[in-house]
Specification:
Blueprint (H helix, E strand, L loop, with lengths): L3 E3 L9 E7 L4 H4 L3 H13 L3 E7 L3 H7 L19 E4 L4 E3 L2 H11 L38 H16 L16 H12 L10 H14 L1 H8 L14 H16 L2 H21 L8
Parallel strand pairs: 2-3
Antiparallel strand pairs: 1-3, 2-4, 4-5
Helix pairs in contact: 2-4, 2-9, 5-9, 9-10
């Protein structure tokens, strides 16, 4: 299945191409992959003109290969974990294939565009300390310096906290019916277990949801420090908010409706308010 491209404007050579993961049609309604969402938020924050190329899950590896972009992470056995996003910027000829590195690139190349600085100095001391087995490997960001290294650590800890609880979301994965069985086989091979065994039974969901809520308590505390909210820096969004927001998009798209409603209300509703506020940067091209 070939990737498809969408744009709200006439294609021009100046547009960045943003490669996102196509899930169930219509892809604009079901997009809930967390790392591409981090990039979409950043692109919209910077008001950088772009077009989206939607890539079916089974084609992600071949698309990265055609762009000559190596995997940004590996499984425990050393095999590459190919995923998206990727951006290609014709203005500079650069192709970048990791969500955090894309954000750094946008800030470096377009420092004053859009809403300004993606990486303002701020306190980001959330730590997820549980030693849990993570089926999806966490990316290792390269090239960060100075205060941006705090964002790298924050990204790793937020990724770990949500990834440790993604079992809650697997039953709601919006597979494209045309490729669903192929995708399930790919995921099963990656984790070494049949897809049908990866979810959470009804009798255990309550316990895992409670653990998920507790895992996010430290993150919620950061959001409560500036009572003006809804972002970590009050009314000013930053890439840290987009990191959390990407995972909230996954939670919104995959959790059962009643559990998503509960998550929005956890810790005095900080995550519900954040998700709503991020709609300002959620527009599709």
């Amino acid at each position: 299945m070939a990737p498809t491209t969408s744009t709200s404007t006439s294609p021009t050579t100046g547009l960045i191409t943003f490669y996102d993961i196509a899930l169930a049609p219509p892809v604009q309604k079901t997009a809930c992959s967390p790392n591409p969402w981090k990039t979409r938020y950043a692109l919209n924050f910077k008001k950088t003109p772009y077009k989206t190329t939607w890539v079916p899950l089974p084609d992600v590896s071949s698309v990265r290969g055609a762009l000559n972009i190596p995997a940004s992470r590996t499984f425990a056995d050393g095999t590459p974990y190919h995923t998206l996003p990727v951006i290609s910027d014709p203005a500079t000829g650069r192709i970048v294939g990791d969500s955090f590195e894309i954000a750094m690139y946008l800030q470096e190349q377009y420092p004053s565009s859009g809403a300004g600085d993606l990486f303002p100095v701020q306190e980001l001391d959330f730590v997820f300390g549980q030693n849990l087995e993570l089926h999806a490997p966490i990316a290792e960001t390269k090239g960060a310096e100075g205060h941006i290294t705090a964002y790298v650590k924050f990204n790793t800890n937020v990724d770990s906290a949500f990834t440790a609880h993604t079992q809650l979301m697997l039953d709601g994965f919006p597979f494209d019916p045309a490729t669903a069985e192929e995708c399930k086989a790919i995921f099963s091979q990656r984790v070494g277990a049949p897809w049908e065994t990866l979810g959470v039974s009804e009798d255990k969901r309550g316990e895992l949801l409670g653990a998920f809520e507790e895992a996010l308590s430290g993150l919620a505390s950061l959001y409560k420090k500036d009572v003006s909210g809804p972002f970590l820096k009050g009314s000013k969004a930053s890439y840290a908010d987009f990191i959390v927001g990407g995972w909230l998009r996954m939670s919104r798209g995959m959790l059962p409706a009643k559990e998503w409603k509960a998550l929005k209300g956890w810790h005095d509703g900080v995550f519900g308010r954040l998700d709503e506020a991020l709609e300002a940067f959620a527009q599709m091209d």
